[in-house]
Amino acid sequence: MFQTILLAYDGSEHAGNALKVAANLAKTYGADLHLAHVPQIDMPPIVVGPFVSALEVPPTQAQIAEAGEALVDQAKKRAMEEGVVI
């Protein structure tokens, strides 16, 4: 029935639950499980007016890539625990 399963993973509790379901489907049907992760950068608001607050420095591309790799590695480990190799 399923040959390929694509899971969008962001590390949230909901994504963890979806990973369990996707891994179970992959095992049941012998499907390939693929992960997709797209980083979302939260930028602090910029306030213009008489008061200026400290603005955080946005993360570098290297920091974003490192965080994404760590998240994907975490998902791969969880998938392996469910019996699926990604």
Radius of gyration: 18 Å
N- and C-termini, Cα separation:
19 Å
Sheet with the most strands: spatial strand order: 1-2
**Average pLDDT value?**
86
Uncertain segments: none
Overview of the molecule:
The chain is an alpha+beta fold and 86 residues long. Helix content is 44%, strand content 12%. It contains two helices and two strands. The protein has helices at 13-29, 61-81, and strands at residues 4-8, 32-36. It has a two-stranded parallel ribbon with strand order 1-2. β1, α1 and β2 form a beta-alpha-beta unit. The longest helix is centred in the C-terminal third of the chain and has 21 residues, at 61-81. It starts with a strand and ends in a 5-residue tail after the last helix. 12% of the residues are buried.
Give the SSE layout:
Blueprint: E1 4-8, H1 13-29, E2 32-36, H2 61-81
Parallel strand pairs: 1-2
In short:
The chain is 44% helix and 12% strand. The protein has 2 helices and 2 strands, in the order βαβα. The chain starts with a strand and ends in a 5-residue tail after the last helix.
